[in-house]
């Protein structure tokens, strides 16, 4: 596919042999939010790797890479959503997919790669029979996801302070 700059972007499925790249990208996302290193679990990389591997087995987790000029420019992961409550609606009526870890390397940003990755994840979730795709957006990601057709949805939160 070509981006707005007529640059060729190839989107391909990631293999399990490339899981370490996905781990690295996920950690870079949290770094970009300004997360202090001491806030990470000591086993953060192993925890992410375990999540990816179990997600493949239990939630149809699939990841994709954007390749530009032979380099991995970014990645995205998607999977069947893990409901926090008992789902009683039949899957053909309500099956949620979840997109997470949309990441683009600094050198490749603002070239349509995040949008291309997001659209690929949406297409994949559709192929699994999902009726809705869910994503939690950062401030920087929100315009990208709106361009992909996502709408703001209600979610309420309450920060719980330690006593």
Automatic annotation (TrEMBL):
Which Pfam families does its entry note? Acetyltransf_1 (PF00583)
What Gene3D superfamilies does its record include?
Answer: 3.40.630.30
Looking up InterPro entries in the UniProt record yields: Acyl_CoA_acyltransferase, GNAT_dom
Q: Which CDD domains match?
A: NAT_SF
- Residue ranges of the N-acetyltransferase domain? 9-163
Give me the segments passing through the membrane.
none
Q: Which domain of life is it from?
A: Bacteria
**Mind telling me what this protein is named?**
GNAT family N-acetyltransferase
Q: What is the lineage of its organism?
A: Bacteria, Pseudomonadati, Pseudomonadota, Alphaproteobacteria, Hyphomicrobiales
